[in-house]
Amino acid sequence: MPLDPYFAPISPWSAGLGCRCPRCGRGPLFKGFLDLAPSCTACGLDYAFADSGDGPAVFVILIAGFIVVALAFWVEVSFEPPLWVHALLWVPAILVVTLGLLRPFKGVMVALQYRNKAAEGRLDSHTP
C-alpha cells in the first residue's frame, strides 16, 4: 500500500490564477511564459498529465475581443476619431489584454484538469 502524502484540496481557480501547483498551491506551474515546468518543486507533482491545448487561447480571444471591440465601438460613437487613433489605441490594448490573460487562463485549465482527473479519451479494446 503506497503512502502518498495528503494534500488539502486547493481551489483550481486560486491555484490557476496564481500560476501555482494545482496539488499543493506552492510550487510554480511555469518555467517560462507559457512553458510548464516538468514537475512541482514543492510537492513533486509531475505535470506530464497537463495538456491544455488551445482551450486557454479560445477563451482569451473571446474575452479580449469582446472588451476591445466594445471599447472601440464606444470610442467611435462618442468621439469619432480618425482611423490612425484607433490603430494607436487598440493594437497595444489587444496585445496587453491577450498576453495578460493567457498565462493565468492556462494555469486555470491545468488546475481544472488536475482537479477533475481529466485524461485523454480511450476506447475499451475488449469485445463482449
Write structural notes for this entry:
- This protein has 128 residues and is mainly α.
- Helices cover 50% and strands 0% of the residues.
- It has helices at residues 12-17, 55-79, 83-115.
- The longest helix has 33 residues, at 83-115.
- The two termini are 33 Å apart.
- The mean pLDDT is 91.
Element layout with pairings:
Layout: H1 12-17, H2 55-79, H3 83-115
Helix pairs in contact: 2-3
Q: Which terms summarize this structure?
A:
mainly alpha, 3 helices
Summarize the structure.
This protein has three helices and no strands. The protein is mainly α.
DSSP helix fraction: 40-55%
Tally of strands:
0
N-to-C span = 33 Å
The quaternary state of the protein chains shown equals single chain
**Regions with little confidence, pLDDT below 50 for 5+ residues:** none
Strand content: under 5%
